[in-house]
Amino acid sequence: MCGLFFVLVTFTLGASAFRLQQVKSTENCPHHTVYFKHYYELHGEPVVLKCPSPRYKHLDFSALTPNITWYKNGSKTMISGRDEDPRIWAKGDALWFLPAMLEDSGVYICTRRNPSYCAEVSIHLTVVEKTAAQEIAYLQVLFTFTSGKIVCPELWDFTPNRTSLELKWYKDALPLEADSGKFVILKGSTSLIVNSVLPTDSGYYICKMSFPFEGVMYEITRTIHLKTVEKEKGITPIIVYPTQKTTSAALGSKMTLPCKVFIGLSSHIHTDVEWLANDTTVDVIYKKSRVTEGGRQEIVENGENFIEVPLIFDSVEEVDFYTDFTCLAQNRYGYQVLPTRVKQEAVGLSWYIAMTPITLACIIVGGICIHKCWKRKADKGYTTAKV
């Protein structure tokens, strides 16, 4: 009887946790989306998370002025302005960390509300030690025997006056000389010009920028992994996103996971990009269209061509955590595959607060029953081993 009751209590407890995970993200807002971008940042440096503007079908709410609130997943305490916390604070659609610390890693929820709609977006932040900078480097590609430029990414939140922008550039920890003829550092620009690109120019580049704020001087660092390819030869497609092997998502949430592919100067029409699920096309695995492959976008950035194809989850379900998703990019010169997995977003222990009285009663009675069983065994001379 006690053993059966223990199984019943365990099952009830698990079912309660599972139920709350499903509705957790929709208790206050009808829409919960996982932002495709995962922020990877360095310990001790300023970080800004931006709350993306939601778009639903043909409607665009970006023109509206909603009320935006922020909190960290697992905590219902809203993140307030700078007066309450000088290090982590919210302003408009941005969440500021001055600076970010290792313990700030986690999932942050921004909520947009106005009288007609409410939407939540989960944003993942991982803060790493500076010694791991190369592990989170931005991939960029240049053609050999031509001139090209390396771009120091994601600085505009820290540079309201772009004309005063000054960067320091390094390769293999050595500062680059602006007047060497090989490199040209443009003042007021995030770009580094590389003349006559050679295969030996590949490697890791670092750009640094000083960021003064209210009397404190911070440093912002970006690491770029530069690959060089021959322009004369057709280029094999290079998948530049997603950059991580796993993406976290909560049960029941919406999610868009784009696959972005670099094809250089090649024509868009010569490269195919598609998503596979368990090595099969998505529409075969997901016949009811809960998970679909979105429309193909052909993009031109800095004179280079990219293709982007999103994988769209209308609602993340448990089966997705056990499915192998793969982005496949191919043309006549070759192909590249990038496997990725969706893992369940960590849920805090606050679920027990919402348990029903029946569930709580089961746990209490079950505990009493198990205690009596153990006591009877002890009275009869049985011993229990410590684990």
UniProtKB/TrEMBL annotation:
GO biological process: inflammatory response; negative regulation of cytokine production involved in inflammatory response; negative regulation of interleukin-1 alpha production; negative regulation of interleukin-1-mediated signaling pathway; negative regulation of protein processing; protein processing
Signal peptide coordinates: 1-17
Domain named Ig-like: residues: 30-122, 150-225, 237-343
Bilayer topology annotation: Single-pass type I membrane protein
GO MF: interleukin-1 binding; interleukin-1, type II, blocking receptor activity
Entry-linked Gene3D superfamilies: Immunoglobulins
Subcellular locations according to the entry: Membrane
UniProt keyword Glycoprotein present: yes
Transmembrane segments: 349-370
Keyword annotations: Disulfide bond, Glycoprotein, Immunoglobulin domain, Inflammatory response, Membrane, Receptor, Repeat, Signal, Transmembrane, Transmembrane helix
Principal location: membrane
One of the record's GO cellular component terms: membrane
Family assignment from sequence similarity: Belongs to the interleukin-1 receptor family.
Name of the protein in question: Interleukin 1 receptor type 2
Organism of derivation: Strigops habroptila (Kakapo)
